[in-house]
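Onboarding guide, step 5: your first structure request.
Type a short instruction followed by the sequence, for example:

Predict the 3D structure of this protein.
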Amino acid sequence: MEKRIINPWTWQNERSYVQAVEVTKAEGTLYVSGQTAIDDDGKSSTGNMKTQLIQAIQNLEKVIIQAGYECKNIVRLNVYTTSSEELFTCFDVFQNWVTQHNIKQASTLLEVKSLFETLKIELEATVVK
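The system replies with structure tokens like these:
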């Protein structure tokens, strides 16, 4: 698999994403459903944004690893949140995770009216191998 990052500007680097990712010669593509702060028993978290973000990241990692892929090969990551303001108070958690795995992903961040039950954040990814 070969990846090529397309960034006509540099300002997006501080926001932990890229403008586009071209993938060629991929062996496989994994489309991951939105991962949230739901525990192993299917119970939705009632925690704050930071707690939910951490659990959503952990759940995303679990699916990716179980499928035999690696987080560093996330090429698309959409973020849905019920509060951008709240998310940006703990956005460093997200940015540190992206940096830790050297993820270079195209992203869209959307604030939505609500998510399932008590959830505040949802991460939807495309991963290549």
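Each response can be followed by summary notes, for example: The chain has a mean pLDDT of 96.
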